[in-house]
Amino acid sequence: MTQSPYAPGAVYRPMLARHAGEEHRTATALELFFDLCFVAAVARASSALEHEIVAGRAGHGLLGYALVFFAIWWAWMNFTWFASAYDTDDVPYRLLTLVQIGGALLLSAGAAEALEHGDFTVITWGYVVMRLAMVSQWLRAACTDRERRRSALRYALGILVLQVGWLARAALSHDGGVASFTVLAAGELLVPVWAERAEGTTWHPHHIAERYGLFTLIVLGESVMAAGLAVGAALETHEETGAVLSVALGGVLTVFALWWLYFAQDAPRRLRTQTTAMLWGYGHYGVFAAAAAVGAALAVNVAHVTGHGALTDVQAAAVYTVPVALFVTCVWLLHRRVVRLSAAADLLAPLAVAAVLAATFTTFAVLCTGFIASLLIGLSLVLARRGNR
Fold first, then answer.
1. pLDDT (average), residues 74-89
2. Which helix (H) or strand (E) is 50 found in, with range?
3. Can you tell me the distance from the alpha carbon of 193 to that of 198, in angstroms, rounded to the nearest whole number?
4. Cα 164 to Cα 86: distance, rounded to the nearest angstrom
5. Is 56 left (phi over 0), alpha (psi -120 to 50) or beta?
């Protein structure tokens, strides 16, 4: 039996571009371990968001959450696409991945401080550590992959310059201005656009789709865990048991429906060109951020029905319905052009989003949202069956 050229355990392999049509390409054990290390960062950000909302600082918490989650998402996304193109799984690659994991843990440690108090010092250092490790990976690719050297060097240069900017921002502005963050974040988003205009890197559509699916599972799982802890704590005190169970049931129905909706899509078919793949990858910021926020929102609503927190009924409901609506909208926009849908099927998601937002003003908003999300899945199955006849 012939050993795969990328079988684990090699001390060194030249970092050459992997073939986009490689058979049986799946996530490696190292990639799965890398994802697990990001669970801590997602959990800390979600928990800090919950704390801010319950304390009556929803606006401040949501802004901080958006900024912190950008760092989490972008660092994860860059590792994922690089791995799809150049994963050698040799010793140097593993050691540089270990450096990135250390940066992810440092990022996790600073997530709450950044979100709650606007102090991005720790999270910036964690982010920079991860990104500088990526510079090393791109320089290694530039040395051995002559065909795509210009792209690799552009990635390395762009990332390196921006890390200087992030460190300067952390040193000069303790509270972190939103304007400077926006400028640097925009620069990060533009680096792949600029770099890919040279030769362009390879990536494996099925591998990328699997990696994004796995991270979606992790984020949804974090939402389930956060909600479970909140419900368990409330039930231990025997406070408003009926209302808490209503929130729990609605949350389970919602998260299950969101999982079903996401994995009902044929993602590899969407990843056909560099442009569509880039839009698909960037669009997952909304998918991941919304999915993680659902867990925080469930915990907020458990706190609300048990008499804790400073939110009104409508505010507590909106905290939950808005991220659910955002998740559904993002998934619909990312995949609606992959297959030709009937007019009725294409309207299902927008109608569901409108219904979820309208549920904000109902008495049992979380439970209503769960039923609406479940109805969306049921109607999608009915229309899909009719379309296949």
1. 96
2. helix 29-54
3. 10
4. 25
5. left
